[in-house]
Design goal:
82% of the residues lie in helices and 0% in strands. It is built from 11 helices and no strands. The chain has one domain. The radius of gyration is 19 Å and the shape is globular. The protein starts with a helix and ends with a helix. The chain has 312 residues and is mostly helical.
């Protein structure tokens, strides 16, 4: 459970940095620059200490990156600029829970206990209560880019959930080939970390392919993006791109892959779905976005569900 909670914390910071990068650079540049930086850093780690481009699960990790980092992140970054960070994370992370659970059940036959299912429901319910906008706000956000933002958010959820299941499949192939211990609980922490770096790097390569193609098409067609804050100094833009890369597709993905190597995705995803809750105090501190009492109550419910799931 530890790597899943670490992922949640790191990705919470990543969300704040991502929103700032979108404001500064536009959605396409913010996404492209951070994934290129992350691929270089994680590639150096994977080729130095990990397995590089080796392993029986290579192509499934690559496909996982196409789905998760490619289409999933395109959805997330385009949703951020249209419906904001709270709704984007709500749709992406909460939606990924049932997507991952259903896909892993259909494809890999993974089942969970009734207690675990109840905890998943509690977590998702708490997050929905915490982050659903007020009724008065719905009247104003139905116009303009709202529906497009919802669609991009759903794309992010599908990418996150299906990408996690594809990663789980890659680990199963590695176990079948004798590259990974059959019993996940016997994997040493150092081994799991470098395994996570290797898997993350292989996934990023798939994501880079899709994001570069998508960005090139968008730039060539001169698609309209959100306004860019050109007044911010280059050093500030570089700093947020760096924070975004380190906490998301570098350290965050290492912890995420570490979690998936030892725990079913239907258990990992609900814990990761706590990311929007952790974002609440960060947004209050950095963006002066004060949470309502309903947000606090929903966050407490989601945290309770995660704790019950962790101690089971």
């Amino acid at each position: 459970m530890l790597p899943a909670f670490l992922t949640t914390f790191l990705w919470s910071i990543c969300v704040v940095a991502a929103r700032r990068s979108v404001d500064q650079l536009g959605e396409d540049r913010a996404n492209l620059y951070r994934i290129l930086l992350a691929t270089g850093l994680l590639g150096a780690m994977a080729h130095t200490f990990g397995g590089g481009l080796g392993g029986a699960g290579l192509w499934f990790f690559f496909l996982s990156g196409i789905v998760g980092f490619g289409f999933g992140d395109i959805g997330a970054y385009n949703a951020l600029s249209r419906i904001g960070s709270r709704l984007t994370i709500l749709i992406a992370q909460c939606g990924a829970v049932p997507v991952a659970g259903f896909a892993e059940w259909m494809w890999m036959g993974t089942t969970i206990s009734l207690w675990q299912l109840m905890c998943v429901v509690i977590i998702v319910l708490g997050i929905v209560v915490a982050l659903m906008p007020e009724r008065a706000r719905w009247a104003t956000i139905r116009e303009g880019p709202f529906l497009a933002g919802i669609a991009f958010g759903v794309l992010a959820a599908l990418g996150q959930g299906l990408g996690a299941v594809l990663s789980r499949r890659a680990y199963e192939m590695a176990r079948a080939a004798g590259e990974l211990a059959t019993d996940p609980t016997t994997i040493e922490t150092s081994t799991a970390i470098w395994l996570g770096a290797t898997a993350g790097y292989q996934r990023l390569l798939g994501g880079v392919l899709i994001i570069v193609i998508f960005t090139a098409v968008r730039w060539r067609s001169q698609s309209i993006q959100v306004p860019i804050r050109k007044t911010d100094p280059v050093s500030h833009k570089a700093a947020f791109v760096g924070i975004n890369a380190l906490t998301g597709p570098v350290l965050g993905i290492i912890c995420f892959q570490w979690a998936l190597s030892t725990t079913p995705s239907v258990i990992v995803q609900p814990i990761i779905a706590l990311t929007p809750i952790v974002v609440i105090p960060l947004a209050a501190w950095l963006e002066r976005d004060r949470p309502t009492m309903r947000s606090v109550a929903g966050g407490a419910l989601a945290v309770l569900g995660a704790l019950l799931l962790a101690v089971n």
